[in-house]
Amino acid sequence: MAETTQTQPTPDTPTAYGWCTWHKGAADDIRLISAIEQGSGPGVSLFACGPCRDLYGLVPLTDRP
Ligand SMILES: [Zn+2]
Questions:
Q1: Does 33 fall in a domain?
Q2: Looking at the domain assignment, is residue 7 inside a domain?
Q3: Residue numbers of the domain that contains 42
Q4: 16 C-alpha to center of ligand 1: Å?
């Protein structure tokens, strides 16, 4: 039985330390939730940490079908 209860991060979505837009603070394991396209200038990327993803039911872009 080699089952593991740990969640394995996918190779193309490494966990990162950064700014969580939802609780407005730095956090580990933030994920890109959405990238808002704007008519001019760079788009706005919204990142959320694990607790905020659970709290607000956020789904990272890379986990969507
Ligand atoms: Zn957060």
A1: yes
A2: no
A3: 18-63
A4: 13
pLDDT digits 0-9 by tens, 16-56: 899 999 999 999 999 999 877 777 777 788 999 999 999 99
- Give the Cα separation of 8 and 5 in Å (integer): 9
Q: Render the burial of 18-55: b for 16+ CB within 10 Å, e for the rest.
A: bebbbeeeebebbbebbeeeeeeeeeeebbbbeebbee
Number of domains in the chain: 1
Per the domain annotation, does 30 fall within a domain?
A: yes
Q: How far does the centroid of ligand 1 lie from the alpha carbon of residue 25, in Å?
A: 7
CA of 40 to the centre of ligand 1 (A): 28
pLDDT of 64 > 90? The answer is: no
Domain-embedded: residue 38? yes
